[in-house]
Amino acid sequence: MNRYPMCRYLFPLLLALAVVRPAVAADDLARVRRFLTTLESLQGEFVQHATNRATHTTQEAMGSVWIERPARVRWHYTQPAPQDVLIDGERMWVYSAELEQVVVRRLAAGELARTPLAFLAGLASLDDLYAMEALPAAPHPEELRLLLTPKGKDSSFQSVSLRLKRDDLALLGMEVVDTVGNLTAIAFHGLKLNQPVDPAHFALDLPSGTQRIDQ
Q1: Contact 59, 10 (CB under 8 A)
Q2: Rounded CA gap, 62 and 130, in Å?
Q3: What is the pLDDT of residue 77?
Q4: pLDDT-flagged residues of the chain (< 70)
Q5: Closest CA to 131 of 42, 11, 35, 24
Q6: Residue 151 DSSP label
Q7: What pLDDT does 49 receive?
Q8: What is 34-94 written as a DSSP string?
Q9: Which of 72, 116, 137, 210 is the S-S candidate for 206 at Cβ 3.0 to 4.6 Å?
C-alpha cells in the first residue's frame, strides 16, 4: 500500500513547450513562449483530482504550491491529509504529519528534466524536450489550450495539457497523463507570478521526534 498517495500523482506534474501546429496562431505561440521564458516564480492555491485508470476512482486533494527558479518546488497539501512535497534542487522531501515521518531521496542526475516540472524549475530546454499542439478551445473560446508531449522515451509522463486565459495567459489549470494512463487534473486559483517567494516556504519545519528515512 502506498503510504504517500499524493506523491504518485505529483511527480508527473507541471510544464513545458516547443513545436507548434498551424492551429496555434503565430502571435499566440510568441506570447506563450515569452510568458514561459520570463517566468521566475509561481505561488498560489490548487485543487487536484487524480483518477486511477484501473479502478476508475478519483481522489481529490487541495493545498498551496510555491515554485521558484532554479529548482525549488513545494506542494503543501491540506486535504485530504496534511502532506508536503519539497524539492530543493538536490533532494525530494516527502513529509506526512499523520505518519510523523519524512522520506528524503536524492534526485538522480537529470531526473527533474524528465518531468513536467522541468521548465518551471528552470532545468530544461522546451524545444529539445517537448512538442506542442493546439487543442480545441470550445466550449471555452476565451481559453488557450495546449497539448505538450515529451520527445524522450524515458519521460515520467505521456502528456501534459495546459489551460491559459487567451487575453493575459493566466494559468488556469493542467492535466497530466502518466505512463500507465492515470490522469491528474489540477486547477489553480489566486496565482501570483514573478513575485518574491518567502524562503521559509522551501524549508520544512519538522516537529521534534519526526522519523527520517533516507533513500
Answers
A1: no
A2: 28
A3: 97
A4: 1-26, 29, 113-114, 116-127, 138
A5: 24
A6: S
A7: 97
A8: HHHHT--EEEEEEEEEEEETTTTEEEEEEEEEEEETTTEEEEEEEESS-EEEEE-SSEEEE
A9: 210
Q: What are 140's three cell numbers?
A: 471555452
C-alpha cell at 160: 501534459
Take residue 116 and report the three cell numbers written for it.
Answer: 513536467
Domain ranges of the chain: 7-195
188 secondary structure, DSSP code: E
List the grid coordinates of 121.
524549475
Given the C-alpha cell 522551501, which residue does it identify?
202
One-letter amino acid of 50: A
How far, in Å, CA of 165 to CA of 45, rounded? 17
Instruction: Determine the distance from the C-alpha atom of residue 129 to the mean position of all C-alpha atoms in its chain, rounded to a whole number.
Output: 16
d(CA 210, CA 203): 15
CATH superfamily of 7-195: Lipoprotein localisation LolA/LolB/LppX (2.50.20.10)
- Coil, helix or strand for 127? helix
Which pLDDT does position 22 carry in this prediction? 40
The radius of gyration computed from the CA coordinates of the chain, to the nearest angstrom, equals 17
